[in-house]
Amino acid sequence: MSIELDGLAVGYDGTPVLEDVTLGVEPGEVLAVLGPNGVGKSTLLRTILGLQSPIRGSVALDGDSLSDLSRDEIARRVGYVPQQESTTVPSTVFDAVLMGRKPYLDWRPTEEDKRRVAAVLDSLDITELAMRNLHELSGGQRQKVMLGRALAQEPSSLVLDEPTSDLDIRHELDVLELVRRVSREGNAVVYAMHDINLAARYADRFLLVADGGVVALGDGSVLTPENIERVFDVPVRLVEDEIPILVPERGRD
């Protein structure tokens, strides 16, 4: 198991915003965390990354307790793609991805570090962008660069926070196709999303969260109109296709 959560409660100042999360994510699996703003999705991801401590429960990466791992050891095991970042510091694409090698760096990048970055750029089909400045890129291109930075860490798991926010439809599909391909190469993937239908198309399992707790955990069968209404407080109907498509009904009066 790449990621294991056991009885996890997360929040701030001792007050939980999300409780009783117990699950495991296997290599090659994509777990989508679905829920509205403010229910603890990002807090859950930050706790998995060791960026904040759990209120209760535990996190394990590759069988080792997160509390026993150093920051560099965590970074070697789990890569992180945050929500769209503002790029205030001028940087080329190559240098931005090279930052992902930080857990391995001694004093300066080695030739192996540079080869790894070149391989990641090639795998994401963005080699031609290597010397471009981040400021010159579209939102979709920048998101691929952030994914590349995470992959340069050579992690066994990936955590992504709203990986398709502010992207147009084509770039949404491009990014999620890449993430699914990465998972099929052996990475466990966890991402938080709002878009139920995109998640239904690209994820293997789903954690539905609402105020205070878990509503459902499982495969696509948990994406029922009843569960979605409970999570998002919006009535929906299910349109049968190869995957479930949930269409909002008329808004509440």
List its traits.
253 residues, alpha/beta, Rossmann fold, six-stranded mixed sheet, four-stranded antiparallel sheet, 8 helices
Structure explained in plain terms:
It is globular and about 55 Å long. Helix 5 packs parallel to helix 6. The chain has a domain at 3-83 and 155-248: P-loop containing nucleotide triphosphate hydrolases (Rossmann fold). The mean pLDDT is 91. With 253 residues, it is of the alpha/beta class. It has a 6-stranded mixed sheet with strand order 6-7-8-3-9-10, sandwiched between helices. Strands 2-1-4-5 form a 4-stranded antiparallel sheet, with helices on one face. The protein has 8 helices and 12 strands. Strand 1 and strand 2 form a beta hairpin.
Helix content: 25-40%
Oligomer: single chain
Largest sheet: 6 strands, mixed
Number of helices: 8
User: CATH superfamily assignment of the domain at 3-83 and 155-248?
Assistant: P-loop containing nucleotide triphosphate hydrolases
- CATH hierarchy class name of the domain at 3-83 and 155-248: Alpha Beta
**Total number of strands:** 12
Query: How do the helices and strands follow one another from N- to C-terminus?
Result: EEEHEEHEHHHEHEHEEHEE
What would you say the CATH architecture of the domain at 3-83 and 155-248 is? 3-Layer(aba) Sandwich
Main sheet strand line-up? 6-7-8-3-9-10
CATH fold title of the domain at 3-83 and 155-248: Rossmann fold
The helix-and-strand class reads: alpha/beta
